[in-house]
Design a protein that fits this description.
Elements: H1 2-14, E1 17-19, E2 35-44, E3 48-53, E4 56-60, E5 65-80, E6 83-99, E7 104-119, E8 126-142, E9 147-156, E10 165-172
Antiparallel strand pairs: 1-2, 2-3, 2-4, 3-5, 4-5, 5-6, 6-7, 7-8, 8-9, 9-10
Length: 177
C-alpha cells in the first residue's frame, strides 16, 4: 500500500501547476537582480486530497543557467471506503536548470524527503527518508510575453524501478524564464 500511496503522490506532484520565477531584468550587474523565485503549488480535494507546495529561490549564474534551493511540503489524504491513509512528505531541495535553446531546457532536481505514512488504525505512523534525483528536460511554449506553457519528462535516477514523471503547467511571471 505504501508503494501505491507514493505512486499517487508522485503523480499528483507531477500535475502541480508550476509558477514562473519573478525577476528584475533592468540591471543585471546587481546580485539581487539575478535572484529568481520559483516553485509550485498543489491543491486537490476529494477522495484523493493533496495540499502542498515547493517554494524555491534561485540565482541566475548566467543568462542560461539557474541554480537554487527550496523546501517541499505535501500533505496527502486518501479515503478508500471506510479506510483512510494520510501521509506527508517534506524536506530540502536543490535544482539546476539550463536553457539549451530559447524553448528547450534540461533540469536536475535533488530532494531529501522525509515521509510520514499514517493510517486510521492505532499503529504508529511509519517514517522513512528518501533521496530523489530527477533528471530530465522539456519544452516551453510562449502563450504571451510573460506566460508559458511548459511540459517535460523527468526520471528519478536513484530509484531502480522509477517510471518517467510527466510535468506540465502554466508559468506566469514578470520576466523571461
Amino acid at each position: 500500500m505504501r508503494g501505491f500511496i507514493l505512486l499517487l503522490s508522485g503523480f499528483f506532484l507531477s500535475m502541480s501547476v508550476y509558477t514562473q520565477q519573478i525577476e528584475n531584468k533592468e540591471n543585471n550587474s546587481n546580485w539581487k537582480d539575478k535572484l529568481a523565485i520559483d516553485g509550485n503549488l498543489a491543491l486537490q480535494f476529494g477522495t484523493y486530497t493533496l495540499i502542498g507546495g515547493n517554494p524555491q529561490i534561485g540565482y541566475r549564474i548566467t543568462d542560461k543557467i539557474l541554480a537554487g534551493v527550496g523546501y517541499s511540503y505535501y500533505l496527502n489524504s486518501v479515503r478508500l471506503g471506510t479506510v483512510s491513509y494520510n501521509d506527508k512528505l517534506h524536506g530540502p531541495t536543490a535544482f539546476t536548470r539550463v536553457l539549451v535553446t530559447d524553448n528547450l531546457f534540461i533540469r536536475a532536481d535533488y530532494q531529501n524527503l522525509k515521509y510520514v505514512l499514517d493510517t486510521v488504525s492505532d499503529a504508529p505512523p511509519e517514517t522513512f527518508n528518501r533521496d530523489r534525483l530527477f533528471l530530465g528536460g522539456g519544452y516551453r511554449y510562449p502563450l504571451g510575453d510573460r506566460i508559458n506553457f511548459t511540459g517535460g519528462v523527468f526520471l528519478d535516477v536513484l530509484d531502480p524501478v522509477a517510471r518517467p514523471v510527466f510535468r506540465a503547467g502554466v508559468e506566469a511571471g514578470f520576466g523571461r524564464w
